[in-house]
Amino acid sequence: MMRRGKRFWRFVAAFFVLLIVLAAALYFFPQTFLCVDSGPARADVIIILGGGGSHERPQRAAELFFQHAAPRIIVTGYGDDEINRHILMRDGVPSANIELESESRTTRQNALFTCQMLRAENVHSAIIVTSWYHSRRALKTFEHFAPGIKYYSRPSYFNYSHSHWDKEFTRHVYFEYAKLPEYLLRYGVWPF
Asked: Given 3.30.360.10, 3.40.50.410, 2.60.40.10, 3.40.50.620, which CATH number is that of 35-187?
């Protein structure tokens, strides 16, 4: 009986050590866990998600556009759509190659509302552009709510280095850890 009790407590201790190591890895290396980059890809369209504090997302999308990753861009997200469209045009993307989805307010809505446009236009593949720390949830949300379309993730790497983070940016990065299980529990979006 004594031996089983010792084994149990060893198991509990090992479990907590593993939990501490995992928490430390998530804290010190969020880039490894949160960032998903599919690498160079060609698609029918580039989708820019709203958000991102320094307008790095439309700049990344313009870069991909001029690398011929896709012939057009859909800007999604209420409030950010017009700002991002102007940045794209400032960076040289013709307005005829930009389409807006102006109703969505969440990543889930970005996927649902943009998906309607993609299906109506018979789109088969799309490149998702968002911030690096948001790329895992964004990609998995689009794959979940709009199956049948091939998605690639090509995030912006703005503030990728931990040494450049301010308090606000740090909050955005670590808050993403709370959003992953929320999307799993509320919507069934599996993050892996």
From this structure: 3.40.50.620
Note whether 87 and 50 are within 8 A (CB). Answer: no
C-alpha to C-alpha distances, 188 to 92, 104, 140, 182, 183, nearest whole angstrom: 39, 19, 10, 9, 6
Q: What is the DSSP string of 96-142?
A: GGEEEE----SHHHHHHHHHHHHHHTT--EEEEE-BGGGHHHHHHHH
- 125-177-75 Cα angle (round to 5): 35
φ, ψ for residue 125 (rounded to 5)? -150, 150
pLDDT digits (tens, 9 = 90+) for 55-96: 899 999 999 999 999 999 999 999 889 999 999 999 999 999
